[in-house]
């Protein structure tokens, strides 16, 4: 997605009105931009993925303090995405510009499986809630399911008509959503059991940059370069709420079931937190560097964002 973001960088910066308030002090984490962050299910570890081809693991304290503990090296291109296994603390999955995804055993820092099949950048990766499936998608326009137990591809589910930037499983694991660019800027829904496309969510007017299910299997939230955040009923395939317009291009979105809010990181560095029944963000913070990714702490009290200059920032937002 950086290819698209870079083209619109100046537009995003020019049109942003910075938020007021003190800014957190970012921590230098990588030698190049940080494109993905993820918090482990127990909330004690942060994973960061960088365009320096490295994935790093950090001890994450309850107050957001970070201490580096391990680097995972092996990708031969920038790392676009990272995800924790939901039940096995030893496993982390990554996606890279080198056209591969990997499953790592973090106890020894080595690759357990290298997933080959994509023919272009692998932009997105996600484990199912039970950890028995792994989804990937990328610039080859395909969405694929893998068996993380053996690293083998289960099925190439199908394709969008543009690069696919993000994938997300529903809480019950029955539905996979995917989204990205393409002439219709679609969000597609796939049946994990039947391995086929179910429905399409249509409404965004520009590429969809991020999606997340809430704690309700029926509710999906999306962010787009049309500067809107939209809420969908996936059963009826209908939009139920449109938030925005946002003041900059929203490039990453995360949901906290604890806080019942969505956090959005914009390309200007703007961080906003939204309640889905409100028309304006309940929290806003500006960081003076383009942001690519966002993740909530396990308890929903702060967010972690990754930035263009290789830094990560921890921003308290309260409960």
TrEMBL record:
<keyword id="KW-0677">Repeat</keyword>
<dbReference type="InterPro" id="IPR036322">
    <property type="entry name" value="WD40_repeat_dom_sf"/>
</dbReference>
<feature type="repeat" description="WD">
    <location>
        <begin position="157"/>
        <end position="200"/>
    </location>
</feature>
<feature type="domain" description="EML-like second beta-propeller">
    <location>
        <begin position="79"/>
        <end position="243"/>
    </location>
</feature>
<dbReference type="InterPro" id="IPR019775">
    <property type="entry name" value="WD40_repeat_CS"/>
</dbReference>
<dbReference type="InterPro" id="IPR001680">
    <property type="entry name" value="WD40_rpt"/>
</dbReference>
<feature type="signal peptide">
    <location>
        <begin position="1"/>
        <end position="22"/>
    </location>
</feature>
<protein>
    <submittedName>
        <fullName>WD40 repeat domain-containing protein</fullName>
    </submittedName>
</protein>
<dbReference type="InterPro" id="IPR015943">
    <property type="entry name" value="WD40/YVTN_repeat-like_dom_sf"/>
</dbReference>
<feature type="repeat" description="WD">
    <location>
        <begin position="72"/>
        <end position="114"/>
    </location>
</feature>
<dbReference type="Pfam" id="PF00400">
    <property type="entry name" value="WD40"/>
</dbReference>
<dbReference type="InterPro" id="IPR055442">
    <property type="entry name" value="Beta-prop_EML-like_2nd"/>
</dbReference>
<feature type="repeat" description="WD">
    <location>
        <begin position="201"/>
        <end position="242"/>
    </location>
</feature>
<feature type="repeat" description="WD">
    <location>
        <begin position="115"/>
        <end position="156"/>
    </location>
</feature>
<dbReference type="Pfam" id="PF23414">
    <property type="entry name" value="Beta-prop_EML_2"/>
</dbReference>
<keyword id="KW-0853">WD repeat</keyword>
<feature type="repeat" description="WD">
    <location>
        <begin position="27"/>
        <end position="68"/>
    </location>
</feature>
<dbReference type="InterPro" id="IPR020472">
    <property type="entry name" value="WD40_PAC1"/>
</dbReference>
<keyword id="KW-0732">Signal</keyword>
């Amino acid at each position: 997605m950086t290819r698209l973001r870079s083209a619109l960088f100046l537009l995003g910066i020019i049109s942003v009105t910075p938020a007021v308030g003190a800014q957190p002090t970012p921590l230098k984490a990588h030698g190049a931009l940080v494109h993905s962050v993820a918090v482990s299910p127990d909330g004690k570890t942060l994973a960061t993925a960088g365009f320096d081809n490295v994935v790093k693991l950090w001890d994450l304290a309850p107050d957001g303090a970070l201490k580096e503990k391990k680097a995972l090296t092996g990708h031969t291109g920038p790392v676009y995405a990272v995800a924790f296994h939901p039940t096995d603390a030893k496993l982390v999955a990554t996606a890279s510009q080198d056209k591969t995804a990997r499953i790592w055993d973090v106890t020894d820092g080595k690759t357990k499986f290298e997933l080959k099949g994509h023919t272009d950048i692998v932009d997105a990766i996600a484990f199912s809630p039970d950890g028995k499936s792994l989804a990937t998608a990328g610039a080859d326009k395909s969405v694929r399911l893998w068996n993380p137990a053996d690293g083998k591809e289960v099925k190439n589910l199908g394709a969008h008509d543009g690069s696919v930037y993000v994938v997300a499983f529903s809480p019950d694991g029955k539905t996979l959503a995917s989204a990205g660019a393409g002439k219709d800027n679609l969000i597609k829904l796939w049946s994990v059991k039947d391995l086929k496309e179910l429905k399409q969510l249509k409404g965004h007017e520009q590429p969809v940059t991020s999606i997340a299910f809430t704690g309700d299997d029926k509710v999906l939230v999306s962010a787009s370069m049309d500067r809107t955040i939209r809420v969908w009923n996936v059963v009826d395939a209908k939009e139920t709420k449109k938030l925005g317009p946002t003041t900059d291009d929203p490039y990453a979105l995360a949901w906290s079931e604890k806080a019942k809010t969505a956090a959005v990181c914009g390309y200007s560095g703007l961080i906003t937190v939204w309640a889905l029944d409100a028309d304006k963000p309940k929290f806003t913070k500006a960081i003076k560097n383009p942001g690519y990714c966002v993740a909530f702490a396990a308890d929903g009290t702060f967010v972690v964002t990754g930035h263009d200059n290789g830094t990560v920032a921890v921003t308290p937002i309260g409960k």
